[in-house]
Amino acid sequence: MEAVLAGTPCCAGRPVGYLWDRHYVADYVCTALVGALGTILAAHRIRRERTLADVRFVAEIAQRVLLRPLPQRIGNLRLESLYLSAAAEARIGGDLYEAVPTAFGVRLLIGDVRGKGLLAVETAAALLGAFREAAHDEPDLAALALRMERSMTRRAEHLGGSEIGERFVTAIFAEIPADGRVIRVVNCGHPPPLLIRVDDVLELDNGSSGPPLNLGVLLPDPHHVDSYPFEPGEQLLLYTDGVTETRDASGTFYPLAQRLRSFGPLPPHELLERLHHDLLEYSGDNLQDDTAALAACLVADDWIRAVDKPHTS
């Protein structure tokens, strides 16, 4: 007993208290490791949040430059735009839109750059810049599309590489003259526009869609202008394939025309707001691709005069 109390060796040659001390040492080590790991993870999270904030800030600036807000009114047109990004860390991608008032009427563009990332953003910026300038110069819509074709081809050749033929942009160029009543469309491999009437939704597709920009050099006459009647109260909807390729939980594609019919007649702002919420609900708040849309509604002249009339008290 005295030997035990004195701490003489026992337990297979180990001193009394050895197992007890070893247990606490292990606890101390584990606690220290967990604390250190927590500190590292917290620091990493803080850095990631700062990086994410920086990315969002830069993306916000890029969006304001590239996808600047459209005027709500140009002449007898009411306009609205929508952009939804599938990227968690940015608000800008390869989808684009623009509306430019010119001497030839209001000219609209919607496009979708193939690919993702910085190259897609740069290509979108190049196309938007070229369109904003050329829209004022080219009297014919087909000539405008051809000029954009050449601009994208030069850009692809300048970038070089083995994938020049894969650097393309699907796009729609639309023109609504100052007096309205007609829509002229050049489709470069893009989903067809929709004409929203009071009692129906029509797909504007005469089967004359040409190839995407940067692939038109493969054909002698790639750009054909289609014309469609456009009456007051009707609305033109341009969109990217991110809309129609949105899927629900079962994998079913979003039925755009059907959903628009269920919405009923809505002004552009309410239409795209409804579309925005419907896409998120349909996808379970899980959009897999960037989405852009542009709505243009033709308003009767007498309604415009009533709105513009000064209020007197």
Per CATH, what is the topology of the largest domain? Phosphatase 2c, domain 1
Structural class: alpha+beta
CATH architecture of the largest domain: 4-Layer Sandwich
Count of DSSP H/I helices: 8
Question: Radius of gyration, rounded?
Answer: 30 Å
What would you call the shape? globular
The overall number of domains is 2
Name the helicity range: 25-40%
Q: Characterize the largest beta sheet: strand count, sense, and whether it forms a barrel.
A: 6 strands, antiparallel
**Assigned CATH class of the largest domain:** Alpha Beta
Name the CATH superfamily classification of the largest domain.
PPM-type phosphatase domain
What's the β-strand tally?
Answer: 11
